[in-house]
Specification:
The protein has 264 residues and is an alpha/beta fold. The chain contains 12 helices and 8 strands. The structure holds D-malate.
Length: 264
């Protein structure tokens, strides 16, 4: 589906009924990242998965920042008449979730932070982003996909699931270049969300693949220590895309977390 909000088009899926869950993908992904979760939760929850600005079917117009992505999500929720939702953010989607918490905590019933981290980029990290911007502009999304694919997936998946490797490569290669460049600038300029963690008062589930090389387990442990009402689940045999690599384990934790909210 497409919503036209503030003169930009936002592509999204909206399936099921019940407690609303909003799924925010990472970089350079699109909403299809969440297919295994929508399929598993549709019978119990209302699952909304947008394409962030510049990704998938959403308009690739700036400005790009975590605050802007968060404002787009807030506008979509208002458009869909959703007053409060569980926000599930993976990696860059987690950075957006932190921005949404700072700007519109009233919209958040609970948080799921998957394979993400609270810190801002280091100087070295910013330099790598600048190289990726140049690569995207000079050689396109396919070259960015080649540069990112190994870090995206764990060793177990890379060695034993060529189907997942191929489908993730296709998703990365389909990302619009303007959206890639916009997201890289937004990530480079994002603030440190460390000070935000102690302010989070909603139930929070933190999930991370034990083979995640981009946002390693230690980052999730630090978030768990700093967020008062949080739990941490390490997904065995998964890398950075733990929801795709081990969907059964991921969905089990998510369903249990959501059921506890429904009956709380
Ligand atoms: C993502 O998956 O969103 C990215 O790996 C996040 C990042 O590069 O910081």
């Amino acid at each position: 589906m497409i919503a036209v909000i503030d003169e930009i088009e936002i592509g999204y899926d909206d399936v099921g009924a019940g407690l609303p869950l909003v799924f925010l993908h990472g970089f350079p992904h699109d909403r299809t990242l969440w297919s295994p979760q929508l399929g598993a939760l549709v019978d119990h929850c209302r699952c909304v998965a947008p394409d962030l600005r510049g990704c998938g079917e959403s308009t690739a117009a700036g400005p790009y920042s975590m605050d802007q992505y968060a404002d787009d999500v807030a506008a979509l929720l208002e458009h869909l008449k959703i007053r409060r939702a569980v926000i599930v953010g993976l990696s860059m989607g987690g950075y957006v979730a932190f921005a949404l918490w700072r700007r519109r905590p009233d919209l958040i019933r609970a948080l799921v932070l998957a394979d993400t981290r609270s810190g801002a980029d280091t100087e070295e990290g910013r330099e790598k982003r600048k190289h990726l911007v140049a690569l995207a502009l000079e050689r396109g999304a396919g070259a960015v996909a080649d540069a990112q694919i190994n870090g995206m997936l764990g060793k177990t998946t890379r060695e034993s699931h060529p189907d997942i490797v191929e489908s993730v490569r296709q998703m990365l290669s389909a990302a619009p270049v303007d959206g890639i460049v916009g997201a890289l600038h937004a990530m480079m300029d994002r603030p440190d969300s460390g000070p935000t963690l102690a302010t989070i008062t909603v139930p929070t589930a933190i999930m991370v693949g034990d083979e995640d090389a981009l946002t390693p387990v230690k980052d999730s442990r630090s978030m768990h220590e700093a967020i008062p009402s949080s739990r941490l689940e390490v997904i065995r045999g998964a890398g950075h895309l733990s929801n795709l690599e081990k969907p059964a384990a991921f969905n089990h934790v998510l369903s249990e977390f959501v059921s506890a909210l429904t009956y709380a």
